[in-house]
Every structure is written in C-alpha cells, then in structure tokens.
Write a structure and sequence with these properties.
Layout (H helix, E strand, L loop, with lengths): L8 E4 L5 E4 L1 H6 L2 H16 L2 H17 L29
Antiparallel strand pairs: 1-2
Length: 94
C-alpha cells in the first residue's frame, strides 16, 4: 500500500503478481466494490496484460526508431531525404 492523496492502483507482473493500491483508493470503496476492484486487478495479471502492454511499448519504440524522414526529423534516427538531380528546363523560343 502507498499513501498518495488520490485513488490509484496498478497490477504489477512478476512472481508472485502484485497489486499496488493507494489508501485513498481503499477508503473510497465499500466491501463489495473492494472485492470487485481486487478481482479486476487480479484479472489483469492472470490475463497476461503486462505482456500485451510490453509488446505495444516495444512496437512503439521500434516504430519511432525506424520512422521515415516524413514522420520524424531526427538526425540520429532518420537518413537525409534523397536528393534528385535538377530537371532540365525546356528550351525557350527567342
């Protein structure tokens, strides 16, 4: 249990799974609501939701690292845009 002033909770992965909950959250729930709350948080861990979240975060980081110059202009991550030779101008009549 942690003591920030606002109600909050997190289901944490690991062996064993953990649920972190603020005292403000616990005080805001009555008996049946508290039971439903813990069932909900346990379902996150039992459902492997942390794996889905980790995969989404990895995909987002990978996309950011391989973004095209049109998406993100970062000298460290994006190559310079290709240059084209100038087009020949048509001859003009005098």
């Amino acid at each position: 249990m942690v003591d920030p002033p606002r109600p909050d909770a997190h289901a944490l992965p690991g062996r064993p799974h953990r649920i972190v909950v603020t005292t403000a959250m616990l005080h805001s729930l009555d008996g049946p609501e508290r039971e439903a709350f813990f069932a909900h948080e346990r379902a996150h861990n039992e459902g492997g939701h942390h794996y889905v979240l980790a995969a989404a975060e990895l995909a987002a980081a990978e996309l950011a690292a391989t973004a095209t110059p049109h998406c993100a202009r970062s000298a460290r991550r994006c190559p310079a845009p290709p240059t084209r030779p100038p087009r020949p101008r048509p001859a003009t009549a005098a």
